[in-house]
Amino acid sequence: MARGILVAILALWATASVAADDASLLLKKFEGDWVAENEEARTEMRWSEALGGKFMRIEYRINVKNETGETPVFDGTAYYQLAEGESLRAFWADTGGSLHPVSARREGNAMIAHWGRPDEGEQGRSRYELLPSGGVEVTDWVKTGDGWRRFNHNVFTRVSAPD
Description:
By secondary structure, this protein is mostly beta strands. It has two helices and ten strands, in the order H-H-E-E-E-E-E-E-E-E-E-E.
């Protein structure tokens, strides 16, 4: 019964606008499996509740397309701590060996995540935006000596919603 109520609530969140200051509710709207494809790569993104519902986990994978099929070249995972308000804390780890603290804030139907520290090497930001079409646009930048340089941009379509 409680699981059915949770599914109904998540379905409502997926179709209704989110309270202007609640970053956790926005993250829950991302829940499910997503994919973005182009000629060179297939990128997969999965958002799910984790660790007793205290966190939202994002799993991110890039597979390069080649003559033998697809080869995974990058995997990353982040855990966003769910809390009331417009900002969230998280951490990110990936197969490149990166481990970054993340601070995220809600901006309308987008979440802006700043990762890394000025005193510990690489810094970047990622923007996850819910589109009117139902997709999610993801753009990533890295901070350089000349300012912010975009290194990734994808528009994801939902493959599956939460059970």
